[in-house]
Amino acid sequence: MNTLLLHCRPGFENEVCSEISEHAANLQVAGYAKAKASSACAEFVCTEEGGAERLMQAVRFKSLIFPRQWARGVFIVLPETDRISVLLEHLQDFPVCGSVWLEVLDTNEGKELSNFCKKFEVPLRKALGKAGKLVEQSGKPRLLLTFKSGREVFVGLAEANNSAIWPMGIPRLKFPREAPSRSTLKLEEAWHTFIPREEWDERLNGDMTGVDLGAAPGGWTYQLVKRGMLVTAIDNGPMAQSLMDTGLVQHLMADGFTYKPRQPVDWMVCDIVEKPARNAALLETWIGEGLCREAVVNLKLPMKQRYAEVRKLLDRMEAGFAERRIKVSIACKQLYHDREEVTCHLRRLGK
Ligand SMILES: C[S@@+](CC[C@H](N)C(=O)[O-])C[C@H]1O[C@@H](n2cnc3c(N)ncnc32)[C@H](O)[C@@H]1O
């Protein structure tokens, strides 16, 4: 039970290793991180008893940038037949769980295994229930089974309120046909990730105003408009006519890095592909000068040292806000819909 398995986008295993090792070092949890290139996961092997649990208790999953899912547990080998009995045997030392998710890694092998998992899930649930290992209730840990093959599975645990909100951290969002671009899903995923669902009506509503920097053709503007907001869309490129027809969008052909609203707005979103330091500075200015209350901004990742670079930018922003003596909550995640980028969400707290 002393290994932490962390899922991620294939190609970002080293970032996960750096990130989790930094947390472990800060918390003085002994262990080492390892990962195979393009495996879509990394492991942190704790070398002291209870290390993985201590790490999961001290770190909020939400604060992690690159991991999509995590669980503490152990890899086991399953036989060709009667896998359930062997699994139950291994689960003897596990607590009663409140839910179970069968997961795979985000690789081609993983995709091929999804069908097996679907078929295996029903009999497994039944057997877990019968053995008293699954009592569907909130507050109890979640059993996370990550199948690497039909024969090898990571049997893990995570707190339901301190792990991914979707299996494997992959949202099942439907692309709205009326939206002008697929990027629309990125902003929708950001909202699911950073804003609790019960706060959407208070924080994303029709009494609000927003600015979309680098808006064309309007996938992000579409999300703001869908919540009823009045949006100023900044881009030299054209906006989708369907959005302009709503009467909720004002399109300005201006430079997103120099534009400032006459009145403060509730939301600023920015999807301009630029050097990450420039986008981070823009974000700091908007929140720091009170031009907006909340913001979602994409940061393109550099080629190397991607975790170190993002960390540096986040630390710089934090220091900037401390200097201005304002309180800001800062979150950053590589979303499922992000490729070589991460998404930041900032919210100014207090008056
Ligand atoms: C990735 S696209 C945005 C896609 C958009 N979020 C959507 O969902 O449809 C980036 C946009 O940024 C715009 N852009 C690039 N530099 C800009 C700048 N300095 N000011 C404003 N817009 C800029 C480009 O014209 C492009 O339309």
Automatic annotation (TrEMBL):
* EC number(s) reported in the record: 2.1.1.186
Family matches, as Pfam families: FtsJ, RlmM_FDX, RLMM_N
Q: What is this protein called?
A: Ribosomal RNA large subunit methyltransferase M
Task: Show the InterPro entries listed in the entry.
Answer: RlmM_FDX, RlmM_THUMP-like, RNA_MeTrfase_FtsJ_dom, rRNA_MeTrfase_M, SAM-dependent_MTases_sf
**What are the alphabetically sorted keywords of the record?**
Cytoplasm, Methyltransferase, rRNA processing, S-adenosyl-L-methionine, Transferase
Give the Ribosomal RNA methyltransferase FtsJ domain ranges. 181-274
Catalysed reactions, as listed in the record: cytidine(2498) in 23S rRNA + S-adenosyl-L-methionine = 2'-O-methylcytidine(2498) in 23S rRNA + S-adenosyl-L-homocysteine + H(+)
- Write out the residues that bind S-adenosyl-L-methionine: 183, 216-219, 235, 255, 271
The segment(s) forming the RlmM ferredoxin-like domain are: 1-70
- The kind of enzyme this is, by top-level EC class, is transferase
Any one GO MF term held by the record is:
S-adenosylmethionine-dependent methyltransferase activity
Q: Which BP terms from GO are recorded?
A: methylation; rRNA processing
Gene Ontology CC annotations of this record: cytoplasm
> Whom does it interact with, and what assembly results?
Monomer.
Q: Which organism is it from?
A: Pseudomonas segetis
**NCBIfam families (UniProt xref):** PRK11760.1 (NF008734)
Protein family: Belongs to the class I-like SAM-binding methyltransferase superfamily. RNA methyltransferase RlmE family. RlmM subfamily.
Which ranges carry the Ribosomal RNA large subunit methyltransferase M THUMP-like domain?
82-158
Functional summary from the UniProt entry: Catalyzes the 2'-O-methylation at nucleotide C2498 in 23S rRNA.
Subcellular locations according to the entry: Cytoplasm
- Give the chief site where it resides: cytoplasm
- Which residues are responsible for catalysis? 300
